[in-house]
User: Fold this.
Amino acid sequence: MESRMAELEKQLGWALVRIAKLEAENEQLRAENAALRKVLDEERRAGKRQAGPFSRNNPRTNPKKPGRKRGSEYGAVSHRRPPAKVDETVEVACPLWCSCGAEVKLEGVVRQYQTDIPPVEPTTIEFVIQYGRCTKCGRRVQGRDPRQTSDATGAVGGDQIGPQTIALAAHLNKACGLSYERIMELFAQVFRLRLSRSALARAMLRLGRKAEVTYEHLKEVLRNSRIVYPDETGWRVGGARAWLWAMTTVTETVYLIERGRGFPEAAKILGELFAGILGCDGWAPYRGFTKAERQLCLAHLLRRCKELLEAPPTAECASYFEQIKAILKEALALRDRRDEGTITPHGFRSRKGKIEASMDRLLEDPDLHDESIRFALHLLTNRDALFLFLAHSDVEATNHLAEKAIRPAVINRKTSGGNRTFNGAHAQAVIMTILRTAKLRAISAIDVFADMLRAPVPLTHPLMR
Assistant:
């Protein structure tokens, strides 16, 4: 009996040693798993940063043919309409003899219109400015013409760039992403106007100061808007990391470049007491707007489900993620039926309640795995922001408007690399705000900039009110 007990104690000791070894291996494997998942998440995020905007993983072997589409439904717009004004008509005679040596018989005429840009010569205005001195305070007083962009005179300020030139340069630099060097080449070759990089840089700063009042007005308009769609992306200022914020509605967009990515930076645009609706992603600082309602971007959530389903830890996890994905898609389908008018109000309310109840049941009983629990906690934290678009027909289910506003800035960042100073970054945000808002309102940003530069004092532009 004693020998049996000793043998069992020996086996127990070996079992305990094996259990301890397996537990250590288990902890090591869990740590490696967590590290690999972190690397995988970083690679996924890197793939979303538009590093290759024109790259495709699996291009089609038989892509659509470029050019106009065939068919009668496109026939009405397949040809360019005749221009309203013809400046010159040229008769092109038909040859009398063919290349084969036979005589040519005239049958009729066809018309071809060619539109071109005429040679452009810059115009220079000399302002002979009278000045005097006040007999009371001794201040220097000088006249000003509405066409002047600056009151500066002397060796540095005596040679100015005109408002149309600055406005076009701003559009080329901030909207098209051309560097000052390329803008110089373009102006020299097309307009025969020679500029310097420093002159363009100073002109952008001056335009930013002139547009500051309009920029602040647009921020105030955004703060009073019912629905705002925010987003943010990385930026560079002097080679250091910064963040570009974009907040947009259907008719306004405001940009801001700051060092941080938290609530204080977001509140610089919207204000801490914003009480509208935010159509945003799951970034935590947006929850700092306690008086606002939020609609989480369902496209982000569906993308997260897809990523989790690519390598699910267990079959139970895969089933759990599939159920969440199905509920989100069902909510989008219900929205489409509501917008199309194919469901009654009672049927819509009933279906909406069932969708919300199904989601609540999933969140109350998540699959017991780290990824499942983490995703469920994220959804539970933002539970009130999942289906707000079903209660308000004018709220988007995604923040695609904000991402569309971010895209031009991302392209500009790829070509320019950011800004050198925060003064330049602020001017960049102000000018991009006017450019994007003008595009949303279908007005000419170049005309708006030219008007701002001609104004004696900065004022809110009438088209931006």
Remarks:
- The chain has two domains: 122-294+398-465, 298-391.
